Structure formats: C-alpha cells, structure tokens
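Write out the 3D structure for:
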Amino acid sequence: MNDIYNFSKLEIHSLLEKNNFPTYRTSQIWRYLYKNQVKKFDEMTNISSDLISFLALNFYIGSLVEINNIISKDKSTYKSLFKLPDGKVIETVLMNYPSDNHRKPRKTICISSQVGCALGCTFCATGQQGFTRQLTSGEIISQVMYYKNLEKEGFFDSKLKNPEKSYKGVKNIVFMGMGEPLANYDNTIKAIKSLNDDLGINFGARNITISTVGLVPQILKLADEEIQINLAVSIHAPDNKTRTETVPINKRYPIEMLIDACKKYIEKTNRKIFFEYVLLEGQNDSPEHAKKLGLLLENMLCHVNLIPVNPTIDSEYKRSNKDVILDFQRILKKFRVPSTLRMEKGIEVSAGCGQLANTNNY
C-alpha cells in the first residue's frame, strides 16, 4: 500500500483512467483529501463504493504516527516526534508568533525533508547525526496535513497560548526542519505544488520558504520553477575560510559560486533572498566578519536573519553576546543591508533552529 499524498493530481487522474474509473472523480478525491481533510476514504460520501473500495485496498491517507510531543514553557511552540512507515522518526514544529512591526500574528509549521542530513554543519543537531534517507513527497505533505487536522479540531487553541484573540490559522510553512530540502529536490517541489493547488488546501506559495545551506545547481534550478516561494540561504560566514570550518559544503560550492547563483536567482525571479546567519561566539561574529558580509551583500535584494546559535548535545559553540550582535547589525546597516534578530521559540525543548533530531528527548 502507498500513501495517497504521494500522488499528484495528474497521477491520481492517470490512476483512475488506468483502472477504468471516471476521471472526473479526480477533483472530488483531491478536494476531500486537501480541503475537507478526510482521514479515511469512506468519509468521501458522494464517491461510488467501488472506487472507495479500490482506494482503501491500495492506499492510506497520511504516513505519520505521532509517538511523542512536547510544548514549550511559554506555550508558543509544539514539537512532534513522528514515526514513519519504516520505523524511522523525524521531528516537526508548530510555532505561534505574535504580530510585529510588519507582520500579523501567525502560526508557522517547520517541516522536515529528510531523515537526518548529510551536509554535516558543525553547529546543527541534524547534521551531527548523519543522513538516513529522503522523505517522500507524501511524508512531507503528511506533516502539514497532520497539523492542519489538529488545527481543525481546535487542538492548538486549547493547548497553546494564542498571542491575539483574533488570530487563527496556520499561515506559513518553512522547510527548516531536519534535512536539506534542495538535496531532496523532486519530492520537495512535488509536495509544494500539491499544497499550493487552488482546488485543495491552497497554501499560498509566498507563505512557503525553502531553506538551503547553498546547493548551487539546485538554486539555479529553483529559479526556473514557476512557483513564487521564498528562498532562505544559510550563509553563516562571509569568507571561504570561516565558512568551510562550520559548513563543509562550502568546499564544493565556495562562497563566490553561492553568491553568483543567488544573484542569478534574484535576477530571474525578482524575489528577495533571505540569508540566515547563525552567530557563533569568537567564530563568525567579529566587526570584520560583519564588514565582509556587508560588502558581500551590498546592493543585493536580500534580508539577513541573525540567529544566536542554539545549544546542541555535540556542539561546543556558544552564542554571541547581545551587544556583539547589535554591533554586527549596526555594521550591516552601514552597507544598507537590512537585518533582523530572529525571534526565538522553543529553545528549551530543542525545537529551535539547528536543534531538531530524531531523538526521544521529550
């Protein structure tokens, strides 16, 4: 049996045609799956019993089982440990954010694209555990649909602190969980297209962010996709020497190649790139690093997210002092490079940036 979330609308159409079922049922099945968010095929009440039996015999809906969860002390963050059909596990996080200077209050789902990660960034818990396998498109979608179902049932309203009473709804999806999404390119893009489909869940492309550590060929490929998603690039250092020490993929795609690819991406898409910069005390947070970064990103359509490093079991890095971070930010401003200090969520429950791993620390 297979998770039906693995199938695109076109693939469901072909499946029905091949098995002599009316193809107009494709749109009905799709709406039931993504708009009605059914959990069982027999909830598809206006579809023939023969087709229901065929679907139930060959498919299931959703490929995840939540085996554990934890809520942060401030009740703004909910983290799940999910078991996959083969017994492997991943983590997914939902975060409540209050309104700020330019955004309304929102719920954001941070989803995983791989079991583990092969890229080995030294400050990242996922990178420290190594790579096991890719997630299927259905396993990626299942994370979103699981949380959308909890939301539909009012679970988050009762369990999490709602920052503003008027605020409801999951608004953003970020591929910033376990794994490198662009190393699982086809399944990531397939999942996004299904989630973005206007006859289904209709999740706005502009509310979806893919984060990459800098896979140059895939960044260039992404520029040709007709999806207006956001791209976040984990840069973490402004020069090859410093970056290679913490981000090993820099040996294959040095910073000159990365920045060139980013400029081509911006030119083709006319979309802003978000650069993620994890601040490590004494490693990449000096005024000189800030000047180099300012020079590197000067005149680019971009925004820098400054992120104090989060603690992980196998890392000795310490987060930069707040005054050091503010000085870093002031220097970037001199080069007219906009930046934001990342609002932290769920650090004490290991749900923050770089903390996700397939462990049972609940």
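The first strand starts at residue 2 and ends at 3.
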